[in-house]
Please model this.
Amino acid sequence: MRIVHSICQTALAVTILATLSGCAILRDPGGNSVAAVRKARPDARTRIVPGKLEDVYRRTIETADAEGWEVFRKFPEEHLVVYHQIPSSVDSTQVGVFCSESDEGILVEVASPSIFSRELAAKVLFRRL
Model:
């Protein structure tokens, strides 16, 4: 009985810790929020930025951090960061920032199912790139 009690306490503690630390797997176990950002990508606001892919990707993260955006999930192998909680946004709809190489430079795309969140994030991000 004591072992079962200890296991339950440990499981509860791990769940609470993961939830409070912002574990995206627990907040979005099916990946629906990320899928919604990917689905909104064709309507993304875009900008071509000169530079190298890794440098531009890093600058987008630094800019978002400086603006107080909360990271929801990072996909460094895809050069994608999904943010949640953009200050001044009226909702918490996720916003994805995609970086990829193009013939003219680095393509930065800001996508979100929320038009308001997308436009706000793009305005802030593109002003600082």
